[in-house]
Amino acid sequence: MLVAHCICKRIVAAQKIHPWRQKFSANQSTLNFSTSPFSSSSSRISDYYIRKRRKWPIKPHKKQLPEILAFQLAKKSFKLSIKKSKAQLLPDLIKAYAAYEIDPSPQSYHFLFKILIQTRPSNCHDQILQVLHHIEKVENFETPECIFIDLIEFYGDRKMLDGAVELFSRIPRFRCEPSVGILNALLSVLCRNERGFEIVPAILVKSQEMNIRIEESTFEILIRALCRIGNAGNALDLLNQMVEEGFDLDQKVCSLMLATMCRQLNCSGGEILGFLNDLKRLGFEPRRVDFFNLIRVLVTKGKGMDALTLLKEMKVNGVRPNVMCYNLVLDVLICNEEFSIADKVFDELLVLGLVPDIYTYNVYINGLCMQGKVEDGVALLHSMEELGCAPDLNTYGLILRALCEAGELGRVRDMVQEVRLKCTRLDQHVYEMLINGFVSNGDGEGACSLIDEMLDENLISHSKILDKIICWLCKTGLHCDAEQLLRERILHRA
């Protein structure tokens, strides 16, 4: 222990240097650094760049930089040649890159094709064929897929289907393994017209020979194309095959197919519901808009009970119907005189917390008037404003028609005054309905008064009921009124 302590003491003592020795050592190291010729040169260079110029010396280029620079310069030179002439772009491209002792890259040819497609010179197609032949016979790189996709879309825009199909068949010659992206591009072009549809089966067979695996996107392109031409049945068969292949079901595609089925005029309500059930078995979950489209079609075909069944199915599937769905069902039920069921549907609408709109009230008031419940209709009309929905001219027109049919012309006049206070003016349809009501009830004076109002409002020229009024005036012996009305009509037309 004593020996170790002595060794440690000597090491510590050796490491301690007196201050004057430290200063001398520092001066000596400075002197040695300054006297070195290499160190002196390095110091002057550092001073030149850092103190005077405030920048670092330029580092030597990497090995790849001259090649990158050459490509940039060649591309710039090619762009300059394009501005001068687009007659022969391939020789200009080769010449521009040869000037810098490099070969054109695949990206260079892609740029060349873009220029041809965008500018479309007079000999565009000939130049495209020339460039393709050069790439096939001279170059040895793997041609990118993006070149063929752009060219196929170009052929599709110019309706050159044969050129697009031929290019698709020649793809392996360009040292390129085609993928589903190229196939989808070609199918999208072919599905634009009827002639292209005839070529699609042969292309699908050819794609199997080229080892292209059909994906979900390919099925979607074909299904959308079939829906576009209204062939929902074949689209459903293709969808079944898509599911059997293990692909996921696209809900948007199913909605499109359902909308296509709804647009077919010769399709019955049962066929539409059966088509919906087929889609649901495949995993389709209809949305509110899908149910709405189906209900609208059923209402158009007068299938009130089927529309009501579909409305109930919405609630079973957890889809809350909106006011528009209830309006459609109410309308068809009232048109079919299913008044008791319509009352239940209207009550259900209120129980669900939905707020009826003006169309809902008009449909329901029309149902009340059809049942002869005019007082209930008037009461509902007067309570609409309190419920936050002001009646419009159509609402008043329904009540006025019912009062005219009931022969209550006094109440008709009172309500007309109320309409004029709340609405801007009566339209031609309401005037004709009122005149017809007054004529039917034998009130010629009231009918003539309404005719005068129509003349003042400049609505008489398009009135189809005017001939009926003139005939009625002649039958009742009011020949002077009929003659005056006819004279005013002629003067108005003149």
From TrEMBL:
Coiled coil: none annotated. InterPro entries: PPR_rpt, TPR-like_helical_dom_sf. It comes from the Eukaryota. PPR repeats lie at residues 215-249, 357-391, 427-461. Keywords: Repeat. The keyword Heme does not apply. The keyword Flavoprotein does not apply. Belongs to the PPR family. P subfamily. PANTHER family: OS03G0856100 PROTEIN, PENTACOTRIPEPTIDE-REPEAT REGION OF PRORP DOMAIN-CONTAINING PROTEIN. This is Pentatricopeptide repeat-containing protein.
